Amino acid sequence: xxxxxxxxxxxxxxxxxxxxxxxxxxxxxxxxxxxxxxxxxxxxxxxxxxxxxxxxxxxxxxxxxxxxxxxxxxxxxxxxxxxxxxxxxxxxxxxxxxxxxxxxxxxxxxxxxxxxxxxxxxxxxxxxxxxxxxxxxxxxxxxxxxxxxxxxxxxxxxxxxxxxxxxxxxxxxxxxxxxxxxxxxxxxxxxxxxxxxxxxxxxxxxxxxxxxxxxxxxxxxxxxxxxxxxxxxxxxxxxxxxxxxxxxxxxxxxxxxxxxxxxxxxxxxxxxxxxxxxxxxxxxxxxxxxxxxxxxxxxxxxxxxxxxxxxxxxxxxxxxxxxxxxxxxxxxxxxxxxxxxxxxxxxxxxxxxxxxxxxxxxxxxxxxxxxxxxxxxxxxxxxxxxxxxxxxxxxxxxxxxxxxxxxxxxxxxxxxxxxxxxxxxxxxxxxxxxxxxxxxxxxxxxxxxxxxxxxxxxxxxxxxxxxxxxxxxxxxxxxxxxxxxxxxxxxxxxxxxxxxxxxxxxxxxxxxxxxxxxxxxxxxxxxxxxxxxxxxxxxxxxxxxxxxxxxxxxxxxxxxxxxxxxxxxxxxxxxxxxxxxxxxxxxxxxxxxxxxxxxxxxxxxxxxxxxxxxxxxxxxxxxxxxxxxxxxxxxxxxxxxxxxxxxxxxxxxxxxxxxxxxxxxxxxxxxxxxxxxxxxxxxxxxxxxxxxxxxxxxxxxxxxxxxxxxxxxxxxxxxxxxxxxxxxxxxxxxxxxxxxxxxxxxxxxxxxxxxxxxxxxx
Length: 762
Fold this sequence. Notes:
- By secondary structure, this protein is an alpha/beta fold.
- The chain contains 32 helices and 17 strands.
- A 7-stranded mixed sheet has the order 5-4-10-6-9-8-7.
- Strand 12 and strand 13 (447-451) form a beta hairpin.
- Helix 16 packs across helix 17.
- The longest helix is centred in the middle third of the chain and has 19 residues, at 386-404.
- The two termini are 53 Å apart.
- This is Signal transduction protein with Nacht domain.
- Residues 148-271 form the NACHT domain.
């Protein structure tokens, strides 16, 4: 069955009824046939295909056995009387896409909008698209600018492959163009042109007619389609090409999109860590679209639909409540990914205690545990024997580790799988569904398998590691003899999953590993610059430790690690014992890490920084801005920002930044609104306060009254008055007092020349 299908409670009855119907069909086959043809049952895309045989009399009264059941009506007639077909769970919450520019370098004195004055953004949003809008405005239209190709980037399980399939269907159904889908993992060191002509075309023609041979004329017709610019080349999984580095993978794509291939319009999918490996991407001619994560509303919508279909709406409400608890903040972040949210719903549905795991490793462990309950009737020996499951998991972990450690990574040859697992356990893994046949090697026709999902391969690979030296074995005098997987991108998720394992026997190992990361010395010499206190690899090891403590809950150094990340991100050197500004490469990476480390501790460290009397003007504003990124729903973050907003010791711009962050983490906060209203009513009134109220004061009557009064005041400048009008546009729609004040403003001379583009529409 395809993944992410939720069957109703009558699954067993339905399966038994279907088997009974098929057996009846088998018994009805002609006795003349020796031996009787076997029934053929398979899932073909989303349809169940059943092939049987039936004897009919022709007009000449001749008995003839014919094949039946290949059409939907045959199957429906077969099972109509005694089968209630289970329905696929129809839970579809489409993700949005954000068009993104490449990362850019900017000078400190560069003129920028005030909203980004202290922010060095790695991601510049051009436009946000909902799913259907993306298809209509991007796929269905000719390229707007110089770039005609499209890159869809995102994390594992973010829906990139699913989206690519949707794009292919859209092109097929809505245009006259030809979509060609290629999984880049299938190339295996071959170039795209060779694969397209020698393998893809042959397989495509067999779908039309099994005995059709590819001739030079057919190849010419394909090339002619490219020449007419009516071909879409859909390339899935740049990160799964098996190249030695992300740079090599992107360079290979760039080298091969030449000649007739360049005439096609290309859409490719790629993981973030590959696409963003360098600031200036080597792959040119692409507009970049990043998949967006589920927001809270989408998560709740998905859970509600999922459990409603399963007939357990009340349990869905319990799951929604659990996700709101502070102790499950990491799980909330985890399930913004569609794959992981689906797994969470499936495992929670089966969990009798109604508890959620704290780490990604615990989530996958729970899914693994309940996975077998779906197969209880088919694999009783496996489901009833912990020894068999342990044996299977041990060999799966060895295979997973071997795959990640090879160039193939996620494509596992049958010979490798059998060598590592043995024939019996390999067959069991295939039968259960952990391993699935994905294709064959063109040269030898050998079968190629893949794990249920790459995330599970990484999870099983983490289960294989019992000694942290598998990730880091530092040999300072001769690094070539050491092991430095901590610096290899393909091992990052494996390391985090290993840190999330909760076995008591691993705690000391995990603690020692974090200690080794924190104290790592790369031996690249002493740094004499005042704004650099570590070597390049030492920083990278420390950043990995900071992310790792999210999974390793028992780390004794967690507080100190987070505080150090804050110091690097905002300018304090422990080595120099004074406030200094670190280079942007260190500062930006530290702030990025702060969003991925243990959030409660990160918020506490930022609050402490915000309240420190030694912090300068710009650092306080930057700390307030960072709280707006990670402090959603956290009472300490909200309180600190409200106090900053109410403080008389900061300027209006700092208050504005506090209001900006509050709008992101707790929109509508009454204390913040009250403080801004008081500021508007003071002699120190500022346009920034009026602007901030337009972001956090929606529907608040005191806010609307204060803005109306400001609009009517003769003691403020035109810009402040216009800012009040702009805020009323956002929060005062339909309010009679707001409308009256704006109407009274219309005859004034000032309204003829607004200080900035735009107008109010209250």
